[in-house]
Design goal:
The structure is a homodimer. The first copy, chain A, is of the alpha/beta class. In chain A, about 30% of the residues lie in helices and about 20% in strands. Chain A has an eight-stranded parallel beta sheet with strand order 20-19-18-13-12-11-22-21. In chain A, strands 2, 4, 5, 8, 9 and 10 form a six-stranded mixed beta sheet that branches. Chain A has a six-stranded antiparallel beta sheet with strand order 23-24-25-30-27-28, with helices on one face. The first copy, chain A, is globular. The interface between A and B is large, with 58 and 57 residues.
Chain lengths: ~650, ~650
C-alpha cells in the first residue's frame, strides 16, 4: 500500500528486450539512447534521470532525462569500452519546479502570490538541509527572503537566474521517487561486430604453385594481400581440425571416397586429435599464430568455425562415449534427418546426465582458441544444439573476453534465429540469400531494421556459401553476382562472400534444381585461377572502399526504401543519425535487361530542399548528377553497371558562396 | 547451468500486458484464447499445454496447445464466472512423438528400423511406469512386442491406431519440461462491462409536474420507462451527495449565487454529510433503494459518480483537516489550475503522511455504496489522484465484488488514460468526443481495437457530457446528433449520452468558442420538455435495438474500415469471430449536404462470394439492397438519414433452394 503514494509512473523503457530478460546490443563508441514513458497524476511534471554503470561497478552515474512529446523522456550515455553496461530510470515530482511553474502563471495573471512565496521559501529551506555548507547557506539566505514576503518581482528576478534554478535542481526533494522496476543491460561490442566484410576461404585450396598440393596456413599468408586489396576485414576459415576417415565423404558428397579425397572439414576429429587440434596438413600452431599476426597487419581478423560435432574417429568417441547417443545394439547414433543420413557425423547428445560436463568441455574448447588469439567465431548450425546452451557459453566467454564476436549460422525458422541472436550471438546469417524480389527485399529489411529487432539481431548477409549457390546466381551470370554483392554490401553493415567462388562467378550447380556447388570445395581441393579476367576483385574493392568512407553504411538502423515504378529497380537510403552522410542505392534486380524507373525521394526526411538542386554522386561510376525534385528518372543496364550507389550532397555551391561575388 | 538442458523455449505468450504486470480483460462467457511461440533446437517438435485456474484454486486445469503457423501454439479455456483467472504454459519434447515421426519417415524410405523399434519399446516401457495399473499393463505388453523386433508393418498398424497414440500421449516423458516464466492473469468482467448503453441524467431535473421543484429519486422512477424505451441499460447519476454552500457556483458557473441556485453536484459535502450521505432534496436511502430496484426491473443498472473531492463544507474538512493541504496562513488550499481557481472545491492531498488512512477511507466509501447495491461507478477525474491508488482501490473492491464496473472519466493525455485502464478501470472515456473527420476516426479506432490495447482499454463513447457540448453538435443541427449517435453506438460496444440534452438536440453553448452548455444543468435545475417533436427517442430506440440483436456490435475487437472515395463518408464493418453476424455501417460525416461514394468491400475477408449476390439489409430504414461485387455505390442525405447500418446476409436463396425446383 505504500506504493500508492509513488505518484510517478515509468513504463516502456527502451531499449528493453523481453522485459529485460536479454541485453540490447550496441557497438563501442555509440551513444546509448534511453527513453521511457514518464508521467504522473494531475498537472505536475515529473523530473527523471537515467542511471547507468559498467556492470560490476558499485556506483551509478546519472544524467537528467529530457521530456519530448507525449510524456516520453530521453537521455543517453556513451560507452567507451566493450562489455556489459547496466541502466535504469528514476523519476520524481520536484515540488519546487512545479511550484515555480505555478507561481509564474499566477503572477502573469496578476494574482496575489504572497502565500505561494512563503511556501517556496519553505521548500528552499528544506533544500538547504540536503545541501553541503556553502550551498546550504546560500539557499537559507534566499529562503528567508522568500518567506519575508518581500516584493515579488525582485524575488522572481533573482530566482529566474539560471544559477538559482540550477542550485535548487541539485538538491531536489526525492521523497517518494519511483524506481523503474528493472535494471536493464546493454552488451557493448567491438566495432567490427557492427561493421565487417567477411571473406570465407578454404585454406587447403590456397596453394598457388599449381602443384595441386594441400594448402597450408603459410599459403594463406601469401593470399592475404589479395584479400586485403578487395577490402575484406574478416577472413573466415572452415574448421581447421583433423578430419575423420571413417565414412569420409568423397567428391560431390558421395559415399565413395578416393584415396586423395580430403573429406569435409566439418567431419571433425581423427587420430590426430579433435576440436583442440590442427589438421596436420594445414600446418602447426606456430603457423596458425603467424597467420593471425600477418592478417592483423593487413587489418584482417581470422574467424574460426565452431562446429560442435564429431567424426566417428574423434577422440571424444572413445574418451567420452557418454556424450553420444547409444543405439540398442551398442553403436553410436550418427546424424540423420530422415530419410537423410550423415554417417560421417556423430552428433553430441545434450540430453544425457553428462550434459553439463559436455557443455563445460565445449566452453573450454572455445576458450582454448580465444587464448590462442582468435577473436571471431562463426558457429555452425547452432540451432541443432540447445538454445540456452549458447546463451550460457557466449555469456561465459564474454565475461572475460567482451571483444569476442560470434556469428550464428542458423538458416532455420525465424523464431529460433531470433532467439539465438537475443541469447548472445553478435551477428546472424539471414534469409537474404533467398530474397531476390523487390517486395521481399523491402519487407525483410524493413523488419530487420526496426526496433526491437535491430537492437539484438545484427544481420550478416551472404550471397553465397560453400553450401548454397542460390538459383539467382546460377541463372544470372556476372550481373547477378554484381547485383547480389551491391545488395549485401549496402543493405547491411556486415556481409560476406565465399570466395574465390564468388569473385570468379562460379555458377555451376551439382545438378539442376540443386543449390550445391558442382565439385564442391567442401569435398575436394580446388585450384583457383585468380587471374581470370572475369574476377570481380576490382568491383569488390570499390564497393568495400565505399563502405569504409561512408558511415551511413556502417550501421543498420537508418534505412528507408523509396517508391519506384515497377518491380525491377529497388531503391533505398541509409543515413547517419545527423543526416551528414546519406547513401542512396538503386539496384536493377533483373540481371538480363535494362530497366528504368521514376524514383520518389522524400526530400523533407532527408533534409533536402525542394527549391535547391542537390548533387547525386555515383560512387561506383564517379558520375555526378544534379537532381532538384522528388521525382527522378533512373536507368540501369545490368551489363554495364546494375547499380548506383549515390552519395547525396546537399549543399551545392552557387556564386553567392564565393568571395568574388561580393 | 541446469537450465541449459531445457530445450524448449516459450516466448511471447498472449494475452500478456507489460510482462504480466497487469491482467488482461475479458467478459464472462468468452473463450480466453492463449497463444505462445514454442520451439526448440533441432528437428524435434515440442508438445505444449495451457494451464489455467480460477485465482485462489490450488489445482491447475490443463488442455493441449495446438501448433499453428510459424512455431505459434494456441489453446483456449472458457470462463463462466467473473473474477480473476490465472494461466501459464508448459512445453516439452515428447521423445515418443518425435521418435514416431522419424520412424514413419524411415519406413517410408524403406530403411531398416529394427533398432528404432527397440528404442520405441524402451520408451513405451518407461511410459508404463508413469501409468496406473491397467494402462501400465497394456503399455508393457506392447513394449515387449516392439522390443522383440517382430515384423515392422504389424507394429506400425497397431501403433497407428489412434487409441495407442492417445494412450502414450497420456503419459509423456516431461523430464526437462520448460515452464513459462510467468503466471498471467485475466480479469473476467460481467457482460455489461463489455456491452452497455449509458444514459446520464440529473435527478434534480426529473420533476415532470411543471412546478420547477427539485426532482427526487421517486421522480427518477417515473422517468425509467422513457429511458428503458430508448434502450439504455445504464442510468448514470451525477453525485447524489449533499452539495456545499460555501463558494457555491451560481448559474452558468458564476461566482454569484442566487438564493435558489442548487450548486454543482460535484461540490460534495455540507452539514448534511459527505460521500456517504444523500442530498436531502433527492430523497432517502430507502428511495434510493427503490430506484435501484425499479431500474433493475427495466433492465437498467444505476451508476453512481465517484468524485473524490470536497466542498469547503464537507465533514472531512473539520474531522480530517490532515487530509487537505494547508497554506502558510492556515487556510486550506482550494483547487486551482493557474490561472483558473475552483474555490468551491478542496482537493484531497495524497502526499501527506496520512495518505494511507485517506485511501482506506475512500475505499470504504466505495464499499459503502457497493453494499447498498451499486454495481457501476463512473469515476470523476481519476487522473488527478495517484494512478496507483486506483489500481489498489479497484483491486480491493473486485476481490470481493468482481461484478463491479468502474468507468474512468479521464479526458487527459494518452499514456495516463491507458495506465488507468491497465490499472483496473473496466471502461474508459475516449477522444471520440472530438474525433469528427474520417481519417481521425479511422486512425483512432484502428488503434483502440488492436492488441494489446483492446485487451485492457474498453472504450465508452460519449457524443456529449454535461461538461462538453462539442463544436460539431453546436454547428450541425439535428443531423449532427444522429451522426454522432450512430458513430458512438456502432464504433464501440459501450457508449453513452447525456440526456435529455442529447435527444432534444440542445446545441447552444455558453458563448462562441466554448464547449460549455448555456444555462448548464450543472448549476441549475432544468425543466425538460420531452414531448418536443425534435426528440430523437425513436431513432435512439432503433439504434439500441440494432445493437441488442447483433452480437457484432457487442464487442470491440473485430473492426475493419473500408476504403471509400472522398472524405465525407466513413464506412466500417464489425463482425463476430465466426462471421455469422456482420454489420456494415456507413455514415455521412457532413451534417449539411448529401454525399455519395464508391465503397470497396473486402469480400474474401467477410467470407462473401464474388460470384453470388448478397443482401445488404439496412436496419435503420429496413430497406434491402442486393450487392454482388466489391465496388458499391452509396448515397447518404443527412436530412433524411445520415447513415446505413447494414446487416450483411451472405446466403441469398435461389430457385435451387426450394423443393419444387427438384
Amino acid at each position: 500500500m505504500k506504493e500508492i503514494t509513488k505518484r510517478v509512473i515509468i513504463e516502456n523503457v527502451t531499449p528493453e528486450i523481453e522485459g529485460g530478460r536479454f541485453a540490447a546490443r550496441r557497438a563501442v563508441g555509440e551513444k546509448i539512447v534511453v527513453e521511457g514513458d514518464i508521467f504522473a497524476d494531475g498537472h505536475d511534471i515529473p523530473s527523471a534521470q537515467l542511471l547507468y554503470r559498467k556492470k560490476g561497478d558499485s556506483e551509478w552515474r546519472s544524467c537528467p532525462m529530457n521530456p519530448m512529446l507525449n510524456d516520453r523522456y530521453q537521455a543517453s550515455f556513451e560507452v567507451k569500452t566493450t562489455g556489459r553496461y547496466e541502466y535504469t530510470v528514476e523519476a520524481w515530482i520536484d515540488p519546487f519546479k512545479n511550484w515555480w511553474e505555478k507561481v509564474k502563471k499566477k503572477e502573469d495573471a496578476g494574482e496575489n502570490v504572497s502565500q505561494d512565496l512563503v511556501e517556496g521559501g519553505a521548500m528552499i529551506e528544506k533544500a538547504a538541509l540536503r545541501a553541503p555548507t556553502e550551498d546550504a547557506n546560500l539557499l537559507s539566505r534566499n529562503a528567508k527572503l522568500f518567506q519575508s514576503g518581500e516584493r515579488l518581482t525582485e524575488l522572481l528576478l533573482f530566482a529566474l537566474t539560471s544559477d538559482f534554478i540550477h542550485l535548487m535542481a541539485k538538491y531536489p526533494d526525492k521523497t517518494n521517487k519511483t524506481d523503474y522496476s528493472r535494471i536493464l543491460e546493454v552488451s557493448v561490442e567491438p566495432l567490427q561486430a557492427r561493421f565487417s566484410a567477411w571473406y570465407e576461404m578454404f585454406p587447403r585450396s590456397c596453394a598457388d604453385d599449381g602443384s595441386g598440393r594441400h594448402g597450408t596456413f603459410i599459403d594463406c599468408i601469401e593470399r592475404l594481400p589479395y584479400i586485403a586489396e578487395m577490402g575484406f576485414d574478416v577472413l573466415y576459415l572452415p574448421p581447421i581440425h583433423p578430419i575423420g576417415v571413417t565414412s569420409r565423404k568423397g567428391r560431390n558428397n558421395t559415399s565413395k571416397t578416393g584415396p586423395n579425397d580430403p573429406g569435409s572439414p566439418w567431419a571433425i576429429g581423427s587420430e590426430d586429435g579433435g576440436h583442440r587440434s590442427i589438421h596436420p596438413e594445414l600446418g602447426t600452431f606456430e603457423d596458425f599464430q603467424k597467420l593471425i599476426g600477418a592478417a592483423r597487419r593487413y587489418g584482417i581478423e581470422i574467424a574460426l568455425d565452431i562446429a560442435f560435432q564429431c567424426s566417428p574417429d574423434h577422440p571424444y568417441v572413445s574418451e567420452h562415449p557418454e556424450w553420444f547417443r547409444k543405439r540398442p545394439d551398442g553403436s553410436i547414433q550418427y546424424a540423420e534427418n530422415p530419410p537423410k543420413k550423415y554417417e560421417d557425423i556423430f552428433p553430441l547428445d545434450f540430453e544425457t546426465e553428462h550434459a553439463q560436463e559436455l557443455c563445460r568441455e565445449l566452453l573450454d574448447v572455445v576458450l582454448f582458441w580465444i587464448e590462442r588469439g582468435v577473436r571471431i567465431f562463426r558457429v555452425d548450425n547452432p540451432h541443432t544444439k540447445p538454445l540456452r546452451f549458447w546463451e550460457w557459453l557466449i555469456g561465459k566467454c564474454k565475461e572475460k573476453h567482451p571483444d569476442v564476436i560470434f556469428l550464428s549460422e542458423a538458416f532455420t525458422r525465424p523464431k529460433t534465429m531470433h532467439r539465438l541472436a537475443r541469447g548472445g550471438f553478435t551477428q546472424s546469417y539471414t534469409y537474404f540469400t533467398w530474397r531476390n524480389l523487390k517486395w521481399e527485399i523491402e519487407q525483410y529489411f524493413e523488419a530487420l531494421t526496426q526496433s526491437p529487432t535491430v537492437d539484438y539481431f545484427w544481420p550478416n548477409l551472404w550471397p553465397n556459401t560453400p553450401d548454397i549457390l542460390p538459383e539467382y546466381l546460377q541463372m544470372g551470370g556476372r550481373p547477378a553476382f554484381l547485383i547480389r554483392l551491391v545488395l549485401a554490401a549496402t543493405l547491411s553493415s556486415s556481409y560476406g562472400v565465399y570466395g574465390p567462388a564468388f569473385e570468379l562467378c562460379v555458377d555451376e550447380p551439382k545438378e539442376p534444381g540443386s543449390e550445391e556447388y558442382n565439385d564442391s570445395e567442401k569435398y575436394e581441393i580446388v585450384q583457383w585461377d585468380l587471374n581470370q579476367p572475369c574476377n570481380l576483385k576490382g568491383f569488390i574493392q570499390r564497393i568495400n572502399r565505399i563502405r569504409r568512407i561512408n558511415p551511413a553504411l556502417q550501421q543498420n538502423k537508418n534505412l528507408i526504401f523509396h517508391p519506384t515504378q515497377g518491380e525491377d529497380i529497388v531503391c533505398y537510403s541509409k543515413f547517419t543519425d545527423d543526416l551528414s552522410n546519406i547513401i542512396l542505392t538503386a539496384v536493377n534486380l533483373d540481371p538480363h535487361h535494362t530497366h528504368s524507373t521514376i524514383l520518389k525521394l522524400p526530400l523533407k526526411e532527408l533534409d533536402l530542399d525542394d527549391g535547391r538542386p542537390f548533387q547525386m554522386h555515383d560512387l561506383i561510376s564517379d558520375a555526378r548528377y544534379m537532381w532538384r525534385s522528388n521525382d527522378n528518372y533512373l536507368e540501369l543496364d545490368p551489363h554495364a553497371a546494375p547499380a548506383h550507389i549515390f552519395r547525396i550532397r546537399r549543399k551545392v555551391r552557387t556564386e553567392r558562396d564565393f568571395d568574388y561575388f561580393m
